[in-house]
Automatic annotation (TrEMBL):
A GO molecular function held by the record: hydrolase activity
Keywords: Hydrolase
Protein name, entry field: Putative hydrolase of the HAD superfamily
Pfam families: Hydrolase
Domain of life of the organism encoding this protein: Bacteria
Naturally occurring in which organism (per UniProt): Rhizobium rhizoryzae
PANTHER family associated with the record: HALOACID DEHALOGENASE-LIKE HYDROLASE
Length: 233
Protein backbone atom coordinates (compact mmCIF):
# COMPACT_ATOMS: atom_id res chain seq x y z
CA UNK A 1 0.00 0.00 0.00
CA UNK A 2 3.01 2.27 0.40
CA UNK A 3 3.16 5.13 -2.05
CA UNK A 4 6.72 6.20 -2.73
CA UNK A 5 6.73 9.92 -1.93
CA UNK A 6 8.19 12.43 -4.32
CA UNK A 7 10.55 14.57 -2.18
CA UNK A 8 9.94 17.55 -4.50
CA UNK A 9 6.31 17.38 -3.43
CA UNK A 10 7.39 18.21 0.14
CA UNK A 11 10.29 20.59 -0.51
CA UNK A 12 8.10 23.60 0.39
CA UNK A 13 7.11 22.15 3.77
CA UNK A 14 8.34 24.05 6.82
CA UNK A 15 6.00 22.66 9.50
CA UNK A 16 5.47 18.92 10.00
CA UNK A 17 2.35 17.92 11.91
CA UNK A 18 1.87 14.42 13.27
CA UNK A 19 -1.10 12.77 14.88
CA UNK A 20 0.01 10.52 17.74
CA UNK A 21 -1.95 7.28 18.12
CA UNK A 22 -1.63 4.80 15.25
CA UNK A 23 0.49 7.36 13.39
CA UNK A 24 3.78 7.72 15.30
CA UNK A 25 3.47 4.05 16.27
CA UNK A 26 1.73 1.42 14.16
CA UNK A 27 -1.85 0.32 14.49
CA UNK A 28 -0.90 -3.25 15.47
CA UNK A 29 0.62 -2.04 18.77
CA UNK A 30 -3.01 -1.43 19.70
CA UNK A 31 -2.39 0.88 22.64
CA UNK A 32 -5.90 2.12 22.02
CA UNK A 33 -7.39 -1.19 23.25
CA UNK A 34 -6.28 -0.24 26.76
CA UNK A 35 -7.62 3.31 26.48
CA UNK A 36 -10.86 1.93 25.05
CA UNK A 37 -11.33 -0.40 28.04
CA UNK A 38 -10.58 2.41 30.49
CA UNK A 39 -13.21 4.59 28.83
CA UNK A 40 -15.79 1.81 29.08
CA UNK A 41 -15.00 1.45 32.79
CA UNK A 42 -15.36 5.20 33.27
CA UNK A 43 -18.77 5.29 31.59
CA UNK A 44 -19.96 2.19 33.49
CA UNK A 45 -18.94 3.68 36.85
CA UNK A 46 -20.25 7.16 36.08
CA UNK A 47 -23.68 6.05 34.91
CA UNK A 48 -23.96 2.79 36.87
CA UNK A 49 -24.29 0.74 33.68
CA UNK A 50 -23.42 -2.84 32.83
CA UNK A 51 -20.21 -2.99 30.74
CA UNK A 52 -22.14 -3.87 27.59
CA UNK A 53 -24.50 -0.89 27.93
CA UNK A 54 -21.61 1.41 28.85
CA UNK A 55 -19.73 0.32 25.75
CA UNK A 56 -22.72 1.01 23.53
CA UNK A 57 -23.09 4.52 24.88
CA UNK A 58 -19.33 5.11 24.65
CA UNK A 59 -19.36 4.22 20.93
CA UNK A 60 -22.52 6.22 20.33
CA UNK A 61 -20.84 9.34 21.75
CA UNK A 62 -17.72 8.64 19.69
CA UNK A 63 -19.80 8.57 16.51
CA UNK A 64 -21.98 11.54 17.39
CA UNK A 65 -19.36 13.85 18.87
CA UNK A 66 -15.95 12.69 17.56
CA UNK A 67 -14.78 11.54 20.98
CA UNK A 68 -16.46 9.77 23.87
CA UNK A 69 -15.25 12.62 26.09
CA UNK A 70 -17.10 15.26 24.10
CA UNK A 71 -20.36 13.29 24.40
CA UNK A 72 -19.88 12.85 28.14
CA UNK A 73 -19.20 16.57 28.59
CA UNK A 74 -22.29 17.57 26.61
CA UNK A 75 -24.74 15.03 28.05
CA UNK A 76 -23.40 14.44 31.58
CA UNK A 77 -21.32 17.57 32.35
CA UNK A 78 -18.33 15.50 33.48
CA UNK A 79 -14.92 16.83 34.55
CA UNK A 80 -12.79 16.26 31.45
CA UNK A 81 -9.55 16.00 33.42
CA UNK A 82 -10.83 13.11 35.53
CA UNK A 83 -11.88 11.29 32.37
CA UNK A 84 -8.60 11.93 30.53
CA UNK A 85 -6.52 10.82 33.49
CA UNK A 86 -8.47 7.58 33.80
CA UNK A 87 -8.51 6.91 30.03
CA UNK A 88 -4.75 7.29 29.67
CA UNK A 89 -3.76 5.25 32.72
CA UNK A 90 -2.19 2.59 30.50
CA UNK A 91 0.91 0.43 30.15
CA UNK A 92 3.30 1.87 27.52
CA UNK A 93 5.69 -1.09 27.53
CA UNK A 94 4.48 -2.27 24.11
CA UNK A 95 6.13 0.83 22.63
CA UNK A 96 9.81 0.25 21.95
CA UNK A 97 12.47 2.78 20.97
CA UNK A 98 12.50 3.41 17.21
CA UNK A 99 15.83 5.10 16.44
CA UNK A 100 15.30 5.13 12.65
CA UNK A 101 12.02 7.00 13.11
CA UNK A 102 13.70 9.42 15.53
CA UNK A 103 16.53 10.13 13.09
CA UNK A 104 14.09 10.60 10.21
CA UNK A 105 11.97 13.10 12.19
CA UNK A 106 15.06 14.93 13.41
CA UNK A 107 16.38 15.24 9.82
CA UNK A 108 13.21 16.94 8.52
CA UNK A 109 13.87 20.61 7.99
CA UNK A 110 11.47 22.83 9.91
CA UNK A 111 9.32 22.54 13.02
CA UNK A 112 7.66 19.32 14.13
CA UNK A 113 4.42 19.09 16.09
CA UNK A 114 2.28 16.41 17.66
CA UNK A 115 -1.43 17.26 17.20
CA UNK A 116 -3.51 14.77 19.18
CA UNK A 117 -7.04 14.21 20.47
CA UNK A 118 -5.30 12.76 23.56
CA UNK A 119 -3.43 14.68 26.26
CA UNK A 120 0.07 16.14 26.44
CA UNK A 121 1.01 13.63 29.14
CA UNK A 122 -0.16 10.72 26.96
CA UNK A 123 1.73 12.10 23.96
CA UNK A 124 4.86 12.64 26.03
CA UNK A 125 4.72 9.15 27.52
CA UNK A 126 4.23 7.50 24.12
CA UNK A 127 6.86 9.61 22.32
CA UNK A 128 9.31 9.10 25.17
CA UNK A 129 8.83 5.31 24.98
CA UNK A 130 9.52 5.50 21.23
CA UNK A 131 12.63 7.60 21.93
CA UNK A 132 11.41 10.42 19.67
CA UNK A 133 10.06 13.02 22.12
CA UNK A 134 13.09 15.32 21.92
CA UNK A 135 12.63 15.77 18.16
CA UNK A 136 9.33 17.63 18.52
CA UNK A 137 9.02 21.37 19.04
CA UNK A 138 5.56 21.29 20.61
CA UNK A 139 2.43 19.26 21.37
CA UNK A 140 -1.13 20.49 20.81
CA UNK A 141 -3.64 18.38 22.72
CA UNK A 142 -7.35 18.04 23.45
CA UNK A 143 -7.08 20.46 26.40
CA UNK A 144 -5.53 23.14 24.16
CA UNK A 145 -8.37 22.41 21.73
CA UNK A 146 -10.91 23.25 24.48
CA UNK A 147 -11.97 19.57 24.26
CA UNK A 148 -13.24 19.95 20.69
CA UNK A 149 -11.54 17.07 18.86
CA UNK A 150 -10.30 16.68 15.31
CA UNK A 151 -11.89 16.58 12.74
CA UNK A 152 -13.61 19.87 13.77
CA UNK A 153 -12.37 22.70 11.58
CA UNK A 154 -12.25 25.14 14.51
CA UNK A 155 -9.64 22.96 16.22
CA UNK A 156 -7.32 23.02 13.19
CA UNK A 157 -7.77 26.81 13.08
CA UNK A 158 -6.93 27.09 16.78
CA UNK A 159 -3.86 24.91 16.34
CA UNK A 160 -2.49 26.64 13.23
CA UNK A 161 -3.11 30.13 14.63
CA UNK A 162 -1.59 29.39 18.02
CA UNK A 163 1.53 27.83 16.49
CA UNK A 164 1.65 30.34 13.62
CA UNK A 165 1.62 27.60 11.01
CA UNK A 166 1.44 28.67 7.38
CA UNK A 167 -0.73 25.83 6.12
CA UNK A 168 0.46 26.30 2.52
CA UNK A 169 3.87 25.21 3.82
CA UNK A 170 2.83 22.37 6.11
CA UNK A 171 2.21 18.63 5.97
CA UNK A 172 -0.05 16.48 8.15
CA UNK A 173 0.31 12.77 8.96
CA UNK A 174 -2.79 10.93 10.26
CA UNK A 175 -4.28 7.46 10.47
CA UNK A 176 -7.93 8.59 10.16
CA UNK A 177 -9.05 9.78 6.72
CA UNK A 178 -11.67 12.15 8.18
CA UNK A 179 -8.93 13.99 10.10
CA UNK A 180 -7.23 14.87 6.79
CA UNK A 181 -10.23 16.68 5.29
CA UNK A 182 -9.66 19.98 7.13
CA UNK A 183 -5.87 20.05 6.63
CA UNK A 184 -6.31 19.39 2.91
CA UNK A 185 -8.83 22.23 2.66
CA UNK A 186 -6.24 24.46 4.37
CA UNK A 187 -3.68 23.60 1.70
CA UNK A 188 -1.55 21.15 3.68
CA UNK A 189 0.08 18.07 2.18
CA UNK A 190 -1.71 15.03 3.61
CA UNK A 191 -0.31 11.59 4.35
CA UNK A 192 -2.46 8.74 5.63
CA UNK A 193 -0.93 6.04 7.81
CA UNK A 194 -2.72 2.82 6.92
CA UNK A 195 -2.46 -0.28 9.09
CA UNK A 196 -0.54 -3.25 7.79
CA UNK A 197 -2.60 -6.43 7.30
CA UNK A 198 -5.82 -4.50 7.54
CA UNK A 199 -7.87 -7.70 7.70
CA UNK A 200 -6.61 -8.44 11.19
CA UNK A 201 -8.35 -5.42 12.64
CA UNK A 202 -11.91 -4.64 13.32
CA UNK A 203 -12.16 -1.01 12.38
CA UNK A 204 -15.15 1.24 12.28
CA UNK A 205 -16.66 1.31 8.81
CA UNK A 206 -16.29 5.09 8.59
CA UNK A 207 -12.57 4.70 9.40
CA UNK A 208 -11.94 2.62 6.28
CA UNK A 209 -9.57 3.97 3.67
CA UNK A 210 -10.92 4.67 0.23
CA UNK A 211 -8.20 4.51 -2.40
CA UNK A 212 -9.76 7.40 -4.31
CA UNK A 213 -10.06 9.75 -1.32
CA UNK A 214 -9.18 13.15 -2.77
CA UNK A 215 -8.16 14.53 0.63
CA UNK A 216 -5.20 12.15 0.80
CA UNK A 217 -2.00 12.86 -1.13
CA UNK A 218 -0.10 9.76 0.01
CA UNK A 219 -0.78 6.51 1.84
CA UNK A 220 1.90 4.58 3.69
CA UNK A 221 2.12 1.77 6.25
CA UNK A 222 5.68 2.70 7.28
CA UNK A 223 6.27 6.23 8.55
CA UNK A 224 10.03 5.89 9.11
CA UNK A 225 10.69 4.67 5.57
CA UNK A 226 8.39 7.34 4.14
CA UNK A 227 10.28 10.12 5.97
CA UNK A 228 13.68 8.65 5.08
CA UNK A 229 12.70 8.84 1.41
CA UNK A 230 11.75 12.52 1.83
CA UNK A 231 15.02 13.25 3.60
CA UNK A 232 17.03 11.73 0.76
CA UNK A 233 15.35 14.06 -1.72
MG1 LIG B 1 -4.59 8.51 15.35
Amino acid sequence: MTNIPDPADFSHVRDWVFDLDNTLYPHHINLFAQIDRNMTDFVATLLQLEPEEARKLQKQYYHEHGTTLRGLMIHHKIDPNAFLEKAHAIDYSALLPHPELGEAIKALSGRKFIFTNGTVSHAEAAARALGILDHFDDIFDIVAADYVPKPAGETYDKFTQLKRIDTAHAAMFEDLPRNLIAPRALGMKTVLLAPRNLGEFVIERWEEVREDDENIDYVTDDLATFLQTLNRG
